[in-house]
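Researcher: Good morning. I'm working through a list of sequences from a screen, and I'd like to move beyond sequence-only analysis. For each chain I'm collecting a predicted structure so we can compare shapes side by side. This is the next one on the list. No need for commentary yet; just the structure.
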Amino acid sequence: MNLSLHQAARILQAHWFPSGTVHPDLLDHLKDADFHSHPADIGVALALEALIEATQPQPHLNDTEGNQQMALSFQQLREANDQRQQEWPGNEKADVAFRAIEVAGECGEVAEAVKKHLRAMRGIEGSTGLIDDVAVEIADAVISLDLLAAELAIDLSEAVTRKFNLTSDKYGMTTRLPEARNATGGSA
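Model: Good morning. Structure tokens for this chain:
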């Protein structure tokens, strides 16, 4: 099956973004591309899925011992990234350019993991990978996007919510992410 990226994006929208939409710039880029010849775009789409999913309110999850825990939020990720970067040797030398290159590299690794996973699923000769490998690389991409956003003083939760809702408005869709509320109960 030779699926176009536009068709793949629509499938992502229907199945992986049930309450949202794919970024319109991504859709414009994907319209005429061939799904099989652009694995990097698949990686970007998967990374976008992970980012949008991270903004959704999550129910309590059970860990391996059956204890309830909350799903990760952008705020928790930022706090952990900030703390770990204080420990990271040489972190003081990482600037916006470094972080942007880091994001590009991580998205490339997502694409590579997807390619290897597709090889395994389709019986194509070459090195193969598992869906867990894709998940690890998507996690790296999300972490590096947060590090870039932190370097630029961007709150990912606010930015993703704002862009998601602007896209819904642009295309006449009713699905929106809840906007953050400030201490007085109004929108931030």
